[in-house]
Amino acid sequence: MDVTIREMRGSDGDLWLGMYRKLWPDHSDDALRAEIGRIGASSKRSAFVAEADGMALGFAEYALRDYANGCNSQPVPFLEGVWVEDAYRGQGIAKALIEFLVERAKRAGFKEFGSDVELTNYSSQLMHERLGFEQTEKVIYYRKVLEP
Questions:
Q1: Burial (CB count within 10 angstroms: exposed 0-12, middle 13-18, buried 19+), residue 45
Q2: What would the mean pLDDT of 125-146 be, rounded to a whole number?
Q3: pLDDT (0 to 100) of residue 56
Q4: Which band of pLDDT confidence, cut at 50, 70 and 90, is reported for residue 10?
Q5: What are the chain's domains?
Q6: What is the side-by-side order of every strand in the sheet holding 4-7?
Q7: Rounded CA separation 126/105 (Å)
Q8: Once rounded to an integer, what is the mean pLDDT over residues 48-72?
Q9: 140 confidence band (pLDDT: 50, 70, 90)
Q10: pLDDT of residue 139
C-alpha cells in the first residue's frame, strides 16, 4: 500500500472531525472543532493525515511544547495523539506517521521527541516501545477546582 502523509488544512475540517470523534469519542463536536481551530491558528501545533488511494487511514497530531516530562531539552516536539482506522491497524500506518514527525523534528535540529500514554492504554505503550521511545516516568495528575 502506497501511503502519503500530508499536513491537514482548514479544508479538511470534516475529515479531521471524523477522525477526532473516533479517537476522542467522549468529547463534544463543539469541543473537537474548537481544538481543530486552535491547531490551525497555532504556529506550534499541526496535524498530519496518512492517506492511500484518496482515503484517510489515520492521523497524528504534533506540538512544540515548552517543556515535556522526562525530556532534557526545551522546547520539545511532542506527539499529542495518533489514531489509525481499525481496518488498517497493524499495517505500519502509525509507524509511518510517527517516523514522519520524528524526521521532521530531526531536520529542525531537535534532539528529543516526547509523547505520553494513558496508564491503561497498553497497546499504545507497546507501540511506543516498538518505535524506540523509552519510558521516562509514570505520573498521575490531580486537580482541585477552585470555587469563587
A1: middle
A2: 92
A3: 95
A4: confident
A5: 4-130 (3.40.630.30)
A6: 4-7, 45-52, 55-65, 76-84, 114-115
A7: 22
A8: 95
A9: confident
A10: 85
CA dist., res. 139 & res. 24, Å (int) = 21
How far is Cα 52 from Cα 113, in angstroms, rounded to an integer?
A: 26
- The pTM is what? 0.89
Phi first, then psi: give them for residue 142, nearest 5 degrees. -125, 160
Q: Does residue 75 have a cis peptide bond before it, meaning omega lies within 30 degrees of 0?
A: yes
Cα 133 to chain center, whole Å?
14
CB atoms under 10 Å from CB of 106, counted, come to 12
d(CA 5, CA 95) in angstroms, rounded, equals: 12
Q: What is the pLDDT of residues 84-107, one digit of tens each?
A: 999 999 999 999 999 999 999 999
What ranges in the chain are assigned the alpha helix state H? 13-23, 29-41, 93-107, 122-130
